[in-house]
Amino acid sequence: MKKPDIILQLSVRSVRLNLLRSVLAALGIVIGVVAIASIGMISANMTLSVTEELSATANVLVVKPDSGGGGGGFGMGGGSSDEDDFLDPDQYNDIRKAAGSSYVYFLYSESDSIEAGSENGRSTIYAMDDEAMKDVLTLTEGSFPSTTSQVVVGPDFIERYDIEVGSKVTIGDEDDEEGESTVRVTGILEERGMSMDLSSDNAIIATEKFFTGRYDNEDEYTQVNVIVDDINDIDAVTESIDESLNRKDDEVQIQDSSRMLESISSTLGTLTSFAIGIAGISLLVAAVSIFNVMMMSVTERIREIGILRSIGTQKDEILRMFVYEAAIIGVVGAGIGAILSLLIGYVVVFGMVGTTEYFFAWDSIMNVPEGMIIGAVICVISGVYPAWRASNLDPIEALRAE
Amino acid sequence: MDSTPVIALVDVRKIYPLLSGDVHALDGVSLSIAKGEFVAIMGPSGSGKSTLMNQIGCLDVPSSGTVKIDGQDISQLSDFDLTALRRDSIGYIFQKFNLIPLLTAFENVEYPLVLRDRKYDDTGRVQALLDSVGIDAALAAHRPAELSGGQQQRVAVARALVNEPSILLCDEPTGNLDSKTSTQIMEMLARLNREGRTVIMVTHDASTAEYADRTIMIQDGRIV
Ligand SMILES: Nc1ncnc2c1ncn2[C@@H]1O[C@H](COP(=O)(O)OP(=O)(O)O)[C@@H](O)[C@H]1O
Ligand SMILES: [Mg+2]
What we know:
The complex is a heterodimer of chains A (402) and B (224).
Chain A: H1 6-17, H2 19-55, E1 60-65, H3 89-98, E2 103-116, E3 119-128, H4 130-136, E4 139-142, E5 150-153, H5 155-161, E6 168-171, E7 181-189, E8 204-207, H6 208-215, E9 223-227, H7 234-245, E10 252-256, H8 257-300, H9 302-310, H10 315-353, H11 362-365, H12 367-391, H13 395-400
Helix pairs in contact in A: 1-10, 2-8, 2-10, 2-12, 3-7, 8-12, 10-12
Chain B: E1 7-16, E2 23-33, E3 38-42, H1 49-56, E4 64-69, E5 72-73, H2 79-89, E6 90-94, H3 105-117, H4 125-132, H5 137-140, H6 149-161, E7 167-171, H7 179-194, E8 198-202, H8 206-209, E9 214-219, E10 222-223
Parallel strand pairs in B: 3-8, 3-9, 6-7, 7-8
Antiparallel strand pairs in B: 1-2, 1-4, 4-5, 9-10
Helix pairs in contact in B: 3-6, 4-6
The complex binds adenosine-5'-diphosphate (ADP) and magnesium ion.
């Protein structure tokens, strides 16, 4: 086997001779690499899982009344040009027309207090046309409501209130103007995950008749969902609805899941940069400690440097010797950091994201080599100045040192 | 003997500017040393002997005057070339041995060879040299700190010889050794000189100076 470069051997031996000091310096790099890689992985896993969930509803457009902007004042009553916080049947029909062959349905929603099982809480209550309910929703258990006093609920709702098909749910409060209504659960919905068109997992879905009876808001739709046949038509359909309803005034807002995805990723991105900034500080501390250790190594070895120079070691060989020393600490630290970030990252991702399904996806796992490279490079950079100092020592002065 | 001197100094001055006034460590030294000579340099402490050796050994360049090694003016050379000259043409033996503490005795001797040839010794030359100065393979595996002064100086002699330099510079080579070991080292230097090497040695001790062909006395930076 070929022996390594003599200069590298000197570096290795120096690190070994001062093992404790070198290990402590490497520890800083380990921590920095673990912090950067883990945070990167958490962010990547969150983004991946959100993207996956949202892409399930990527072909859905959500149309809502445009409540913000446009100085309209206080218009009361119907009329399609008014700024209401609901959509009316005229608008609904306009959307249907504009959306062509897409499946269009309206949705009512309210938030109300709930009593179910032995617990109290608040929940979203949706209502939709009976037909749409059967077309859009999927049950895992039971059946759709056949009378106005029957509802279906999401799986998380079932779990939260610890109830089952057949249980009673009381909506509202005696003191409210709407009073109390009691309904019976007849079916449990399939889990839908995170979506922006209809978050049913933790909600109650009631019949339109029940809902408008209770809240006295017939024909005041909270939103209209448009399920586009072909995902490639999303933009065209959006355009067409916009043309038809927003020509005069901004009556409606049209959202698709890519907008939501964008805003979620940008929020995640901000949080991630902040967290990585903090992790960066730990790398800075590591850099300072490497710098310190390297300066110590140079100072301790001034005489040795003098000997090496006097018997013919070139400046750049001395430089290399100390840069190697920093690089050894960096590579070992970054390597240990990489192994630890795989272990710690896996646990933390599971804890924070809830799934490690995407852990080995490239966007996630690449944070490990990235963190390693950053850590090792920072080490080498911290070693450059001390190494430069060492290589520029005057050989005679260095030889005189004790 | 060759007519062109191996070492030629003309009016060499070395001035250390200090706050308390300039120190004229060398104050106009001219000398020439022929190939194969054994020269002893003597003088009181602080007279400039080591400074003179540093000029000859290309560790330093004079403030004024010229130093020529093999006809080459060293003030014309870059740091890189001076370093290469030290590695290839000059062997150093110091009072304090100056072995590399991280390397074994064997590796210390091998080191200049590796620097020059970029490969490790595969000819057995390193151990042969160590044998010739009385360091066997078992001893050669030790680090300098595990060797006695005499053993360290033997290793240093072997190291100085490994690149077959034409000049051997010895700054008080026996200064830290007892008289018996001193004699052994001096015998060794005399033998190397008989084999044709130019030897320049600084010493305090008149009896070691007797090994030399010529003694140069120096005082206050001048040859007397
Ligand atoms: N780097 C230096 N800076 C200042 N003065 C120095 C330096 N090196 C040597 N000197 C001075 O130069 C003179 C000669 O020193 P040196 O050559 O070491 O003497 P020797 O080896 O004969 O004892 C001394 O007075 C010493 O103090
Ligand atoms: Mg001296």
